[in-house]
Amino acid sequence: MTPTERPASEERGAQLSSKVVSLVGPGAEGAVRRLALDALTDRKGRASELVIARPDAWRLFGIDIGTLQEEKIPGLTLTEDAQQTRTYPGTQRPLPRILITCDDGSEAVRELPPRGQSQLTVLSLSPSTEVSTEVSADGVLTPHRAAPPLPDRLPLLSRPDAFNRLMSMPTISRRRETQV
């Protein structure tokens, strides 16, 4: 099986092995959408918590400010802003976390104690001081030569398709969650 024929779950595992992965280029948002939804829907085995600020969720998925206020998708945490997203990984949780940010997320990793760093992966859509990987419009990756090993290609997902997949996922009422 060639790297381009790998199932999405294998590609995601390869992609998320680094602490901060900076994706740039015309396919970067589509790749992050696909990785995020794969993490939420493929929860057998190694579950993780996906953390994203509402403004970034709007940009990537079309989730507006009022969406998912009373309902919660298991594994998805929507914070109010980028600052809250950066500080959220410091809270004690048993699951590994994937923080998605349209800003440079490397400071979120550096601010954590070493024990917390092992539980956090940051997907950044900002060219940053970290080594960025270019994602073409059809998902072909061109990593910087210092980047960790990555697959040759990532599947992409459009914003409307990502929104539809998110909204079709089962939810848990936050009221019920706090009463239990």
What's the topology here?
Blueprint: H1 8-15, E1 20-24, H2 28-41, E2 49-53, H3 54-61, E3 71-72, E4 76-79, H4 82-87, E5 97-101, H5 106-110, H6 114-117, E6 120-124, E7 132-135, E8 141-143, H7 159-167, E9 172-173, H8 174-179
Parallel strand pairs: 1-6, 1-7, 2-4, 2-5, 5-6
Antiparallel strand pairs: 3-9, 7-8
What does this structure look like?
This protein is of the alpha/beta class. The protein is 33% helix and 19% strand. It has helices at 8-15, 28-41, 54-61, 82-87, 106-110, 114-117, 159-167, 174-179, and strands at residues 20-24, 49-53, 71-72, 76-79, 97-101, 120-124, 132-135, 141-143, 172-173. It starts with 7 loop residues before the first helix and ends with a helix.
- Terminus-to-terminus distance: 47 Å
Biggest sheet: strand arrangement: 4-2-5-6-1-7-8
Extended strand count: 9
Largest sheet: 7 strands, mixed
Percent of residues in helices = 25-40%
Q: What is the tally of helical segments?
A: 8
The fraction of residues assigned to DSSP E strands is: 15-25%
**Cα radius of gyration in angstroms:** 16 Å
Oligomer: single chain
Secondary structural class:
alpha/beta
Short note summarizing the structure:
The chain is of the alpha/beta class and 180 residues long. It has eight helices and nine strands. The chain is globular and about 45 Å long.
Key descriptive features of the protein:
alpha/beta, 19% strand, 33% helix, 8 helices, 9 strands, two-stranded antiparallel sheet, 180 residues, globular, seven-stranded mixed beta sheet
